[in-house]
């Protein structure tokens, strides 16, 4: 799987250091956080264009992640949403008490999915433990709606950043192909590989929330989430089995 250059990670670390400093104004912090993700989005576009031109090798591969409790379904939804925002496809099956999630996508995109899921999963897990359900509401259902709101908003932000990066890209592939067209083609290639790997897959039932009380608070937390990787070596990875190419 394609690795993210150290110089990119170092720039992101510096942006996050300013954003996370206690003395940084919240509005300014949000600007630095968006810039951090913009760097990663631009990296994804750059790799896509270079691969389309034959300058670098970036093939469709797969990443396998085990997702356990607590809140297994919510963490699984986060991974699937991040993968979709980054032009990947995800499928899961149960294995004992855990879920095994297979993410299919181009190597450069899988690298970002891995980093973002690691960071966002930790942020969501720590954030939901800090919230308190209003009096008279069940804590578990409140927290589930909070996490659903968090996932929804985070994935909206990821999609918005990806679209901005594609629109802002001045690069063009041989033959004048725009970044938008290159990305559409990459999505189609990923879908073909995914459907070849899982020809008889069936869509799971849509999750239904019975309690929406924490939705807006979760979305607000998603607005403040760091859309970037944790510092290297600073956190334990949540069940990453590892990437495969093929």
Automatic annotation (TrEMBL):
It comes from Acrocarpospora pleiomorpha. The lineage of its organism: Bacteria, Bacillati, Actinomycetota, Actinomycetes, Streptosporangiales. Residues 12-47 form the DUF2786 domain. Pfam families: DUF2786 (PF10979), DUF7168 (PF23771). It comes from the Bacteria. This is Uncharacterized protein. Residues 75-179 form the DUF7168 domain. Residues 216-246 are annotated as: Disordered.
């Amino acid at each position: 799987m394609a690795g993210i250059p150290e110089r990119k990670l170092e720039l992101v670390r510096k942006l996050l250091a300013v954003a996370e400093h206690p003395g940084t104004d919240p509005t300014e912090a949000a600007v630095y956080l968006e810039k951090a993700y913009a760097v990663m989005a631009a990296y994804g576009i750059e790799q896509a264009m270079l691969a389309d031109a034959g300058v670098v090798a970036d093939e469709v591969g797969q990443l396998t992640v085990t997702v356990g409790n607590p809140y297994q379904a919510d963490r699984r939804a986060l991974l699937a949403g991040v993968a979709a925002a980054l032009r990947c496809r995800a499928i899961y099956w149960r294995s004992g008490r855990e879920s095994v999630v297979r993410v299919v996508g181009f190597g450069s995109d899988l690298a970002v999915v891995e980093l973002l899921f690691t960071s966002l999963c930790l942020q969501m897990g720590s954030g939901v433990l800090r919230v308190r359900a209003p009096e008279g509401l069940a804590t578990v259902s409140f927290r589930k709606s909070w996490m659903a709101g968090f996932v929804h908003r985070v994935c909206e932000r990821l999609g918005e950043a990806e679209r901005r990066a594609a629109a802002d890209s001045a690069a063009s592939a041989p033959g004048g192909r725009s970044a938008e067209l290159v990305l559409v083609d990459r999505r189609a290639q990923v879908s073909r590989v995914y459907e070849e790997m899982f020809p008889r897959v069936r869509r799971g039932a849509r999750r239904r929330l019975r309690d929406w009380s924490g939705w807006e608070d979760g979305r607000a937390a998603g607005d403040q989430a760091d859309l970037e990787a944790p510092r290297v070596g600073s956190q334990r990875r949540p069940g990453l089995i590892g990437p495969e190419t093929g």
